[in-house]
Amino acid sequence: MSSTSRTTGGAGCLLAALGAATAPLVWAPRAELSVAGGFEGSARDLSVLYVDLPLIAVGGALIPLLAWALTRRWTGRPGVAVLVAVAALGLGIWGLLEWWTPHRSGSGI
Asked: Alpha-carbon distance 34 to 27, whole Å?
């Protein structure tokens, strides 16, 4: 294995680790209400920890990794691939914040 392929493979793994760490950190403040339960624990929903959290972490790892791998294959330029992967992670996190909203016990409206 050449040092160039080892370096680019390491960059892909680093991007996947960055995504796997960033996505749950961005997701956690919204999930806090479901874990803590709000007033007297009435809205507690711990399924966010064993369903949503693993999906968020896997998605955070796979989105930049796939974007990096596809761009690397199509262009052959690792710098462009890194930029595309970081942009894909940013768009993925933006989509997560726009799409995922934890259940909130309503005011009856």
From this structure: 12
Residue with tokens 């624990």: 41
Query: What does the alpha-carbon distance between residue 100 and residue 53 come to, in Å, rounded to a whole number?
Result: 12
DSSP 51: I
For the chain, first and last CA: distance in Å?
A: 62
Residues 99 and 19: their CA atoms lie apart, in Å, by 18
How far, in Å, CA of 53 to CA of 28, rounded?
9
Contact partners, residue 60, CB within 8 Å, separation at least 6: 19, 20, 21, 22, 23, 24, 89, 92, 93
Encode pLDDT of 16-65 as tens digits: 999 999 988 988 887 877 777 766 666 677 778 888 888 889 999 999 99
Residue 70 one-letter amino acid: L
Give the count of beta carbons closer than 10 Å to the beta carbon of residue 88.
Answer: 20
